Automatic annotation (TrEMBL):
Keywords: Lipid degradation, Lipid metabolism. PANTHER family: LYSOSOMAL ACID LIPASE-RELATED. This is AB hydrolase-1 domain-containing protein. InterPro entries: AB_hydrolase_1, AB_hydrolase_fold, UCP031088_abhydr. Gene3D superfamilies: alpha/beta hydrolase (3.40.50.1820). The keyword Magnesium does not apply. SUPFAM superfamilies: alpha/beta-Hydrolases, Apolipoprotein A-I. Residues 338-544 form the AB hydrolase-1 domain. One of its GO terms (biological process) is lipid catabolic process.
């Protein structure tokens, strides 16, 4: 096994590509709607809501499911205290397959959906596993793929179909030479009516005349939300950074003027209030100070200095932009712990109820972040002395600690700086890759190196690589990135509190693990996988690297969808799972 080094020039190219992508791609289409909570849903074509407890089935036409879904059934499971409905793609074993004792759960990587596990009938990890007798389920966590928000059958089906249609439109648009950023997929196309009107003609900004009371209310609302720590999104320190950013933007409008000192006095008072516990008295004081700030700007507007021409309009625009960024942060309000503590347990409980394994346990395979979730679950259960309810686990290109490796993901660390939370509230991974695809797949191939992050040379059919790039990737919240990047720091991945380090408790696990790495994986190199493997009990862990010195080689997605995975990787996994299924 050789250690891989990422060229300095390529690092610079990646930073440049990210900068261009974030500059050119506007707001994201989130596909989220405010709805009521519903206990549990499985979808099936039906005219009556009385059939909601039954899933889409193979007896129904595929047109009854969203066209992007190639599974036998599409199930939905609700989350406690959430409007999210998580999609579960189910693949039934054929009648002639070997009977198995445990269902198989597949978990995908960060910002990806189920498609990576089912690229085509000839290159389908999920189909292969079900063909070997395993009742196979792919979980799409919140924000991924066909997971949507809805309170009834009609809403869920409409939302899922809308997601499916947009995913197919992106692929079709790129094929026809359109840039994804030119397609009508902006926030306004998918936000609710109330949100659209919030940013429309009645909102504060260039579209309307100066309205002092409205501006005061809006500024007060923003400051109150910062005071409340954005519903738990930000720590105290992060909230201070973001409020300071807003004040800096306003201060720039007054720079060099006689009003600057007066603004700094108001700024100091507001900053002190934001540090205090929320109460009605503080609310009143924040509003009073917001009024004073607006009055300062208004006084500047009345001055004869050219510096203050359109001052009110510029302040309105600054506040409106700031509000939109806050809304994105709140809209994408989840992190790794949400997946670990809510999404995965809900899916496991649902699958157990559907399949009824005698010992109540599941087999599980996780790719990239999916494997990290499985490691974290083993560590957490080991620490708490709980049964993880997993019979055996396979991880593909996963680690809890990347500090010793040369992973290219380190280049994303600046995006996870809390000070950048407003600049980049979400990382639009799907839109970025779709925008870059024509430059990586067509002459002069200026971004061809991006393909190497996904698949090694000649390891994936071009059409499958295209489908993977255009349809498999989703959007990553900054909140999720903030937590995941702890895996690149001392002591490895930690929970949101920053006090529980998963690798410290992995040795307490009693579940057999097969850890697999790819020899040319630039995202999760073998040395990163080894860093976690060595923490597991030796009698319970098996470690294997795929790839030969002279080739073939395996990059990050080749372990799941590479052309040789069916011959080399899949049988290895089947052998391990079969051993522990018995």
């Amino acid at each position: 096994m050789c250690t891989l080094h990422f060229p300095v020039q390529m690092q610079s190219d990646i930073r440049t590509a990210l900068h261009v992508a974030f500059s050119s791609i506007g707001s994201l289409s989130p596909f989220r709607r405010s709805t009521l909570t519903l206990p549990l849903l499985c979808l099936r074509p039906a005219a009556s809501l009385g059939l909601l407890s039954r899933p889409f089935s193979t007896a129904a036409s595929l047109s009854d499911k969203p066209s992007i879904c190639t599974a036998d059934e599409l199930h939905y499971v609700s989350l406690p205290n959430s409007h999210w409905r998580l999609a579960l793609w189910r693949y039934h074993p054929p009648p002639q397959a070997t009977p198995r004792n445990h269902p198989l759960l597949l978990l995908s990587g960060v910002g990806t959906n189920a498609i990576g596990y089912d690229l085509s009938p000839e290159s389908s990890f999920a189909r292969y596993m079900s063909g070997q007798g395993f009742d196979t389920w792919i979980l799409e966590v919140r924000g991924a793929g066909l997971s949507v928000q809805g309170s009834n059958f009609k809403e869920i089906k409409e939302s899922a179909n809308a997601v499916s249609e947009q995913m197919e439109a992106v692929a079709k648009g790129v094929t026809n030479g359109m840039s994804p950023v030119q397609q009508p997929n902006n926030v306004s196309d998918t936000l609710s009516d109330s949100e659209i009107s919030h940013f429309g003609q009645d909102s504060i900004g260039i579209a309307t005349a100066w309205d002092e009371s409205k501006l005061v209310s809006k500024l007060t609302e923003i400051l109150m939300r910062l005071s409340e720590r954005l519903s738990g999104f930000l720590s105290d320190g992060q909230s201070r950074l973001i409020s300071a950013k807003l004040f800096d933007q306003i201060s720039n409008l007054l720079e060099g003027s006689q009003l600057s000192d007066r603004f700094e006095e108001v700024r100091a008072n507001l900053s002190n209030l934001l540090e205090k516990q929320q109460n009605s008295g503080i609310t009143s004081q924040i509003r009073d100070l917001s009024q004073r700030l607006v009055n300062i700007i208004e006084e500047g507007q009345r001055s004869v200095s050219p510096q203050f021409i359109d001052m009110q309009e510029r302040l309105s625009s600054t506040i409106e932009d700031f509000q939109k960024q806050l809304d994105l942060i709140v809209k994408y309000d989840w992190d790794f712990d949400h997946y670990l503590e809510e999404d995965v347990p809900a899916a496991m409980e649902y699958i157990r109820a559907q399949t009824k394994p005698k010992d109540g346990k599941l087999l599980a395979v996780g790719h990239s972040m999916g494997g990290i979730l499985l490691y974290a679950k083993l560590a957490r259960c080991g620490f708490e002395g709980r049964e993880p309810e997993l019979k055996a686990v396979v991880t593909l290109a996963s680690s809890l600690d990347y500090t010793s490796s040369n992973s290219t993901l380190k280049l994303l660390l600046p995006l996870a700086d809390p000070a950048q939370a407003l600049n980049v509230p979400v990382v639009q991974l799907g839109a970025m890759l779709a925008a870059a695809y024509p430059l990586s797949s067509r002459p002069p191939y200026v971004l061809a190196w991006l393909n190497n992050l996904i698949s090694a040379e000649d390891m994936m059919h071009p059409e499958l690589l295209k489908k993977l790039v255009l349809n498999n990737f989703c959007t990553i919240p900054a909140k999720l990135l903030l937590q995941l990047t702890s895996a690149f720091r001392e002591k490895g991945l930690c929970d949101r509190s920053g006090k529980f380090f998963f690798k410290d408790h992995l040795h307490k696990s009693n579940v057999p693990v097969l850890a697999i790495a790819g020899d040319q994986d630039l995202i999760c190199p073998p040395e990163a996988v080894e860093e976690t493997v060595k923490l597991l009990p030796r009698n319970l862990v098996t470690y294997k690297i795929f790839g030969e010195h002279q080739g073939p080689h395996y990059a990050h997605y080749d372990l799941v969808g590479g052309r040789l995975a069916v011959e080399q990787v899949y049988p290895c996994i089947i052998q391990f799972l079969s051993q522990h299924d018995d």
